[in-house]
Amino acid sequence: MSLIVSNKYELVKWKDRIWKRGTGGKLIPQTDENGQIIYNPLTGQPEYEYIENGTRVNAKRLNHMDKGIFSAHDYIVELQATIRRMQIQMELDGRVPGNSGTFADTLDGSSNKIKLDTALTDIIEAVAIGTTTLKVASVDGFTPFTQVTIFDDVSKEDVVITEIGTNTIKAQALKNAYKKGAKVVRSNVLVDTVNAEMGVGDWQTFSVELVEVV
Description:
Number of helices: 1
Largest sheet: 6 strands, antiparallel
Structural class: alpha+beta
Strand content: 15-25%
Shape: rod-shaped
Number of domains: 2
């Protein structure tokens, strides 16, 4: 019968051997019915009287301990892996507030709990270095105390919005000058669903030719 039942380790409950003591604290030899001292056949030494025989060390008990240590080791390894998975999941949840447990985006266009903030507008008047108020085509999707990227074909920088007005965005003083038509975006990422990649958004100028139609 195995000492380990249903993955529950059964305690051996070891006990010490307690000897009887005679006059002067000496051990008392065991005797047979004839009064002769009983000797241990292996050691040749006398057997002595005891109050508690104690738990003997043998292969069965040592193997029981061995199996218990092995099972505990396996359990700790498995528990470590489980805790690691939980830590990773908590990290993903914690680093993206409000994402309800989804961080990874397969970039294939399928719906998930992450949504790219696509708020975008154009600067309608060129701005100089140090400007804090931007005249824009629209303020839809922009909110104070969020970061935006401003870029054109020459420069790019990230600033924090301080105030939203009527077709104006107030932000930290710009480190660069920007042309009319420069982009103000919450994310300048372009998602390529074909190759499942993220790229940087482009700023372009266009030539428009007006043709009179008669």
